[in-house]
Amino acid sequence: MKDKIKIPESAIRRLSLYFHHLASLKELGVETISSREIATVYGLAPFQVRKDLSYFGAFGRRGRGYNVAKLMDKLGAILGLDRSWNICLVGAGNIGLAMYRYQDFKQRGFNIVAVFDSDPKKAGQTLKPGMAIQSMDQIEQTVNQKMIQIGIIAVPPQAAQAAVDKLAAAGVKAILFFPSSQILIPKGIALRRVNLGLDLEFLSYALTNN
Amino acid sequence: MKDKIKIPESAIRRLSLYFHHLASLKELGVETISSREIATVYGLAPFQVRKDLSYFGAFGRRGRGYNVAKLMDKLGAILGLDRSWNICLVGAGNIGLAMYRYQDFKQRGFNIVAVFDSDPKKAGQTLKPGMAIQSMDQIEQTVNQKMIQIGIIAVPPQAAQAAVDKLAAAGVKAILFFPSSQILIPKGIALRRVNLGLDLEFLSYALTNN
């Protein structure tokens, strides 16, 4: 794998989409697919699909298309989807609990194995047998015990930086981040923002300017 | 306003960020700001900030910076944030109800004024005084009565296309879309996808390849 080339985030996102499309084709028994066919599903140019795949070496042969199962396996390995990940949730509010209850993630190998909240009324509550909401000062110990690699932060903006710092200090290397606040990202942490407010504002822009 | 130029989505997203940064500066009593200062906050080149703003005409003067209040008002008008929007939610599951309960949106002028669900056990339940969950066949009438412009779809993948089509038929022009399924977007509809699974997969990629 070429690891010195900076691969655009948009390409990674498309690889995820290709992976899921291939998974559904495999279920339907489809054996080969062309870059043109993949491209059509997502309204892309076939060149774009080939370019996205080329970041990770040569797949398939010109004119023969790709083997669905093999390409899916390779993309899965690139995306780290051939294994499972242990996740902790910081913030047991509405968004946090929605993430916790969303079964799709588990099917994809993303397991929420710990939940933390700073509210003493919440800490101690049990979400299901064996899954108690823990207080924030238990983050370090639990992250280490349960070998947690990814954190989901769904706390109010004013608590966001402390949550990031606690996870980083405990050794978590990747964070999915819901608060809208600006933060300093500790070195070596991959942080992905979800900003639902910005998504709504994009729609308000579209309605205002169409 | 130039309306023939196609403005990149990424620029619109940055304008939203600038708007919120200006709002917090205004609260702090700051009167002027340079493109360089805005750029620093977001790790951008000052040129990028000037370019994003230039899509909508000239703001401020070279060397003097921007007037915070004026620039904020202009960005607010561009983004449609100088008014409020009526929103309906389709799908009263975990993600849907998290969106419903998220108070930040209301403060920004995004009001969820109706909630629909196909589950007859949910339809009829009351979320708060005056806000009953309605059945799907009430979408058209309610969208018209309450002058709803934006729909949030948080239904299972297999119900997603029907929900899009119902909202479009009722006259909704903008949709925030949570299901991971592929869909046909009716003409004239602005649709913005939120795919939390892809965001987690981006982190799994980052962990696998760093």
Automatic annotation (TrEMBL), chains A, B:
Annotated NAD(+) binding sites: 91-96
GO cellular component terms attached to this protein's record: cytoplasm
Annotated ranges, domain CoA-binding: 80-182
Presence of keyword Membrane: no
Residue ranges of DNA binding: 17-56
Xref: InterPro entries: CoA-bd, NAD(P)-bd_dom_sf, Rex_actinobacterial-type, Rex_DNA-bd_C_dom, Tscrpt_rep_Rex, WH-like_DNA-bd_sf, WH_DNA-bd_sf
Function in brief: Modulates transcription in response to changes in cellular NADH/NAD(+) redox state.
Subunit field text: Homodimer.
Record-given protein name: Redox-sensing transcriptional repressor Rex
Species for this entry: Candidatus Edwardsbacteria bacterium GWF2_54_11
